[in-house]
Each structure stands twice: as structure tokens, then as C-alpha cells.
TrEMBL record:
Highest taxon of the lineage: Bacteria
Transmembrane segments: 20-40, 52-74, 94-114, 135-152, 164-182, 216-237, 257-278, 290-309, 344-362, 382-399
Entry annotated with the keyword Membrane: yes
Native source species: Actinoplanes cyaneus
Protein name from the UniProt record: Uncharacterized protein
Keywords for the protein's UniProt record, in alphabetical order: Membrane, Transmembrane, Transmembrane helix
Amino acid sequence: MSLLAHGVGNSSDLPLPLDLVLQAGAATVVLSFLIAAVLWTRPRLSGGTARFVRTGGWIAVPQAIVLGLCLYLTGNALAGPRDATNPAAHALFVWLWVGLVPLSVIFGPVWRAVNPLRTLFRLLRLPRAGLRPRAGSGAWPAVLWLLAFVWFELVAPHRTDPLVIGLGLLGYAIAQLGSAVLRGEEWFARGDCFEVYSSLAGRLSPVRWRRPLRGLAAPFAVSPASLAAFVAVWWGSTVFDSASGSPAWAGFVQRAGHAPLYATAALVLICAGVLLAVRGTAGRLDVTASLIPIAVGYALAHYLSLLIVEAPRGFLLLVQEWGLAPGVAWNVMPIPSVIATAQVTLILVGHVLGVIVAHDAALASAERPRPLLATLADEFPLVLFMIGCTWAGLFLLFVR
């Protein structure tokens, strides 16, 4: 299925030679760090508060629409056609997994507001077992569910088969609702990987937060370790998706065989490697929040062409099942050079924002103002790590 082909560009589509783009990426990270170190001498992001959105009852309308659409898509995946005319794969892998990122970056944690599992839980008025969440458990359930989802999206055999998707969605809904019965509705905030995913991306929302980047300095409701693990899986899975599309990987699995086994091991190792690198590089400083704009930028860059091409195509498949717009097709193909430029920009902007957030966190954690050289020395390992991530992101996107 075409939706599994995430990119339309390669190194020949870049506005500059790849080596110059890599040098520009490193220079951008270093310059942003030096400018922040010189001009950003005191923490400025702390104390941010989220805007309170008054729904006035209108939120019930999008909640009902999303719930009805999810029920229809799941039922259609289970009982509908098992071919490319079924929109189930587009709904899960494009609308939800990819489309939720820009929506959350703009409007905030939208999935929490319209989460069909929350809506269904409230409508069914399921009994509560009375168990409380374990102290310090954080978002570990969401971490495991996210790892399971990205494995399903990137590795599982027959993952675009509508029946397989429908069974997966049904199983996920039953597991989440059952956990909510045991732990209460607050379970979804730390157990539903899509709600956590949307909430983290929503920390960048200018609609949700009064001043830019303040959301990344505000306290998180989950433990730092589980938050770092979630971001590592999110970011690491995108890195694996790029790497697994390379000729080198294709040649390796062709020679070795057992492709799902090796892909599973590589996915887990990359996610674990990202987590260990982040925790080890930062030392005493918790820089997880600074990785959120990097993960957002890389995810948008990686899936940009997929979103442009396949999101409207999935909508057409959906309405054509209802007898609407017969014969209409979406055959728009983005200009590769434009997509390549946008991808480079998204990656670099994400890293610049990450440098600023990490620098502000370092200042906020210091007991007293520090000399410039001490600031540079303390944050230099993190800058090297971000340069390496910038190079890896650009290289994997454009070298196939």
C-alpha cells in the first residue's frame, strides 16, 4: 500500500549538497546555543500556565463525531472490504498517528478533549473497582502501548489488512476500558498512548499556552523517567522507520531472513539507545522536555509527504464508501524540492527550540547565576548530542 512510502525526496532534491546541509545543521545548533548562552542569562520559561478553555457544552459535538467515526471505522475494518478501498489504514496510520501531531501543536491536547475511549467510558458508566494508580508509576503503561503500536505500524506482518487493524483497535479499546474500570478515568492520561502523545505535542501549542515554549517548562504530571522513555520510543521509532527504508537494511534482511525478528530487535534497540543517550548525556539535568520539539520536528519532517498525499486520499475512500464523490481521485504529488526544504527547516527549527528549552532548564536548575564559561562547559555534551541527532535525522531522511 502506498501509504507505507513516507517520503518523496532524496539528497538530489535538497536545496544544497547534503554535506553542506549537514554542516549548516551543526552550525545552526551551535550558533543557537552560543546566542542563548550569551543573551539568555536567566530562566524565562518557568511559571507558565495553560489557558482554561471554556467549552460551554459545545465540546460534546466533536466528541460525538469522533466516537461515531471511530465506531464506524472499527466496524468497517472488521466487516468491510479487505482491500485498498477500506480507509482503516489511512485512519489509523495517517489521520491519528500523523495528523494528531500538527493538530496538537496548534490547538493543544485535542485527543484528551475528544478521546473516544473517555467518551465511551462516560456513556457506559462502567463500574469502578476502586483501585488507585500506583504511586510513581508515571506513564509507563503508555510507553509500553506506544512501543506496541509502533511495532504494529512498522514491523507487524499484514499490518495494512483492515481485519488485522480492526482486531487491533478492538483489543486496544477493550484493554484501555478495562484498565479504566480498575483505575478510574484518570487512567487514560497515563495509559492511553495517543492521549499522552497528543498532550506532549500540545505543550508547544500557542493556543493552549500564553507564551511560546512555556508549556515545556511547566511541570509534567508523570514521572521524568517514564516521560523520557515515552519520548525515546516516539523519536526512536521514527528514526527506525527512516533507517529501515534504506537499501542497506533491505539488503541485510534479504540475506539474513527472519525480517520481522530483526526489525523488532532493531526497533527496541534504537529506542533503548535513544533513552540511554538522553539520560547519560544530560547527567543531573532533566532535558526530556527539550526533546519534545525535536521529536515533533522530526516526526513532521518524516511524515510530511505522507500527510499531504494520503490524508485526503483516506477521506475520499471514506466518503466513497457512502456513495459520495464517485470517480474522484486525489493524485496530488508534492514537489520533491519543496518537501525537502520543508523537512530540513522542520528538523532545524525543532533542534533550535530544543537547545533553548534545555538551556533555560539548566539555568533554572542552578542554585545561583553561573559564569558564561561554566554554562558552556556544562551544556556542551548536550549540544554535541543534539548535533549528532541533527546529522542523523537529515542523513536518514535524504540518504536512501
